[in-house]
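User: quick one, sequence for these C-alpha cells?
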C-alpha cells in the first residue's frame, strides 16, 4: 500500500495565524472546507500534514495563499503537479516523456528542462512556463549532489557483472559525473 503524505513544507502555525487573522474558529474553518475540527487542530499542532486539496481549500477559505501556509518553501515540480491533482504518470504523458524520465526531471536529477516540456506541463497544470522553470530549478537545488549508490553489495555485484574491480567501477562513475557537471565525491 502506498504511503500517503502531506504537502512538503506545510506550517501548522501559519495555518493557525491565517485562521486567527480572519477571526475564524477551527469549527468555522472546518465547515468552510469540509474538514473535521479535530483534523484542523492536528494540522495546527503539527501532528498531521494536509494533502494538496485540503491546503488549497484552507487557502481559499482564509483568503490566503498556499505560499503563506508553506513559508520559506520553494515551489517544486512535485508541488505544481500535486496542486493540479496529477500523478506522475499523467504528468509524464502531458510532458511527452516516459514515466521514469519524468520522475528524474521532477526529482531534479535531470538538470536540463526543455522549453517544449515546460510549455506542455504549464498547459496541463494551468500555470505559466516560467513557473515550471522556477519549480524545476528548485527541484535541482533540492536534489543537490547525486546520492552515492555504488557501495556495498550493489558495487560488488555491478563490478562483477562488468568484469571490473569495485575501484575501477567507482572511478568510471566519477569520470561520468565529472563529464555531466556534477562534482565527484
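Assistant:
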Amino acid at each position: 500500500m502506498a504511503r500517503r503524505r502531506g504537502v512538503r513544507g506545510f506550517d501548522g502555525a501559519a495555518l493557525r495565524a491565517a485562521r486567527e487573522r480572519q477571526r475564524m474558529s477551527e469549527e468555522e474553518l472546518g465547515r468552510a472546507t469540509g474538514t473535521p475540527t479535530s483534523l484542523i487542530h492536528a494540522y495546527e499542532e503539527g501532528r498531521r500534514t494536509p494533502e494538496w486539496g485540503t491546503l488549497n481549500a484552507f487557502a481559499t477559505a482564509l483568503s490566503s495563499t498556499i505560499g503563506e501556509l508553506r513559508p520559506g518553501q520553494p515551489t517544486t515540480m512535485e508541488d505544481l503537479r500535486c496542486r493540479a491533482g496529477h500523478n506522475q504518470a499523467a504528468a509524464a504523458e502531458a510532458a511527452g516523456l516516459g514515466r521514469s524520465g519524468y520522475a528524474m526531471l521532477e526529482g531534479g536529477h535531470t538538470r536540463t528542462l526543455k522549453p517544449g516540456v515546460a510549455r506542455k506541463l504549464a498547459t496541463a497544470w494551468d500555470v505559466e512556463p516560467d513557473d515550471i522553470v522556477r519549480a524545476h530549478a528548485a527541484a535541482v537545488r533540492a536534489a543537490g549532489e547525486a546520492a552515492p549508490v555504488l557501495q556495498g553489495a550493489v558495487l560488488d555485484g555491478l563490478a562483477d557483472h562488468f568484469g571490473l574491480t569495485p575501484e575501477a567501477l567507482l572511478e568510471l562513475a566519477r569520470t561520468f559525473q565529472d563529464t555531466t557537471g556534477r562534482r565527484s565525491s
